Amino acid sequence: MTRYDLIVIGAGPAGLSAAAEAAGAGLRVAVFDENAKPGGQLFKQIHKFFGAKEHKAKIRGVKIGAELLAEAEKRGAEVFLNSPVAGLYKEREILVRRGEGVGHYKGDAIIVATGAQENMPAFAGWTLPGVMGAGAAQTLMHLHRVKPGKRVLMLGSGNVGLVVGFQLRQAGCELAAVLDAAPRIGGYGVHAAKLARTGVPFYLSHSIVRAWGTDKVTGVVAGEVDGGWNFIPGREKQFEVDTVCIAAGLAPATQLLKMAGCAMRAAGADWLPVCSAVGETSLPGVYAAGDVSGIEEASSAMIEGRLAGGAAARKLGFIGPDEYEERRQVLLAALASLREGMFAPQKRGQISAQTDEGIDLSQTLLRKGYLEEGEVGKYPGVKPAAGIHPVIECTQNIPCNPCRDACPQGCIKVTGGIAALPEYDDRAGCAGCGLCVAVCPGQAIFLLNEDAGDGLAEVTAPYEFLPLPQKGELGAALARSGEKLCPAEVVRVKLAPAFDRTALVTFRVPRDFAMRARFWQKEAAA
Amino acid sequence: MSSERTRDFGRYVAAADDDVIICRCEEVAKGEIRRAVRDGLFTVHEVRRLLRCGMGLCQGNTCARLVRGIIARELGVAADSLVEATGRAPARPLEMRVFAREQGL
Description:
The complex is a heterodimer.
Chain A: E1 2-9, H1 13-24, E2 29-32, H2 61-74, E3 78-80, E4 85-89, E5 93-98, E6 101-112, E7 116-118, E8 131-133, H3 134-143, E9 151-155, H4 159-170, E10 174-180, H5 189-196, E11 202-204, E12 206-212, E13 219-225, E14 231-239, E15 243-246, E16 250-252, H6 255-260, E17 264-267, E18 270-273, E19 286-288, H7 298-315, H8 321-338, H9 363-368, E20 388-392, H10 402-406, E21 412-413, E22 423-424, H11 435-439, E23 445-449, E24 456-463, E25 474-479, E26 484-494, E27 503-510, E28 517-521
Parallel strand pairs in A: 1-2, 1-6, 2-3, 6-19, 8-15, 9-10, 9-15, 10-11
Antiparallel strand pairs in A: 4-5, 5-6, 7-16, 12-13, 13-14, 17-18, 20-23, 21-22, 23-24, 24-27, 25-26, 25-28, 26-27
Helix pairs in contact in A: 1-2, 1-7, 3-4, 4-5, 7-8
Chain B: E1 21-23, E2 28-29, H1 30-38, H2 44-51, H3 64-75, H4 96-99, E3 102-103
Antiparallel strand pairs in B: 1-2
Helix pairs in contact in B: 1-3
């Protein structure tokens, strides 16, 4: 039996953070993960993260994963891959597959960071090839470089469904629609808006009746549901698709915690471990961190991992009480700021009608995924101005502020908490650098110059599709709804290292379309 | 639930979606689970032992919540009032030849 100071189960955002924190304090740490590659879901997250600097905001998940792995290994944590943990016992012992045998390891502390698994709804045809979890589609695309299909239907409008839907579009798949049985889009409005403006329709209060096909899925019948989640007869729609992605929520992967005998509590449809503020379960020295202790974003999981890693270091005497307490307070504050805003875990199930600023939320955004032209001006990031200026279409309280830090002129204010809506301060004078456009993780900031001459306006939008357009290329300007407005010529394509691969595409439209055009679409080759 | 052992939940009535597979690993259909409940198996444990749903390769990771939901609906109770099936090692599929080869004891 091999002994470690700390055994971490799962090399995802929480596990790697826990390992890095504890190894940094001098603990001998082993991390076990069942996958061939470390990072959990992080290496599949090609989008920029929300949050503040301390949460690694505006950095893409895949890069955060690489940095975290390097940090953990540099500090001496041993990461064992292809090593599924098959058992956890209350004496803090684990049973792990190692090659063609099983090994027993004992830890003075154990951190369970096993993440979550996807919920699957059962409908007729759900076992057909081509019906898969959104996570599987991400794995195909980002780890194996395989397109999941040509034309995809997404079930689920939470952040997973929206983010994976956008990634499917980036991979060159067609997205037939995003469905959700709920009457409102569950994820961030900005994620939905990214999809809607490329022409993806949303069907809320809709679910899948059945999928059909013989050898694989070739189509889906969807139906509208009433308030009691029952299908309304006669309201079916058909979609011809070769792939169905399911993003119907996540369930904490608590099997090992339950097996070890940790006290559990019912939380909605899930069972969660009873944990202290630093993740210690009812079994002394056994901690839970990340999604396994309650589903949240990867940013929160990383802080929970560090909290648990630090607590283990303190418990085993590697750090003193003062040093521990100081670090703990910093981490708890960082976690609390991520739990601000209308999507906070403690607000799950509640429906907000207004932002914290008292502005009505866009109902069109919640039902169709885009803002109406007439309502954009209600939000503090949207102000008419002469010359070039940003239009910040950020309308929900999400804990995120990279736009404020990005602006060298100090034009963008996020005051009164990290989840406040950004405000455009026109007194500072926008220089048109476009940094705010490139860093916004929600791709919700545009630059506008309403007087570019000849009755034309210039719209600069973030663009993350390949191939990039060329200067002078003629395409179409699309509205927030994805509606085609007019032909549009690209006048500039900017790609600076600071943009981290988000290109800024500037296109010209008639001035009347300046506040309507939000996406430039390549014309299909004739 | 034991106090409700004698309660009559009514007989099994066939439904249109009874042939939908719920446990993919062990190929258990929805109708089989519904019938088992009507036959008097009121807990996740009992249904699992009779039908093997949740005892296959994925150890119930995909279907546990679905099975619990179906049983709860048949009984007319909230799903979180049903205790989940006991988790046991191995939590991940291990071939017996691997399981039997213990290293570094």
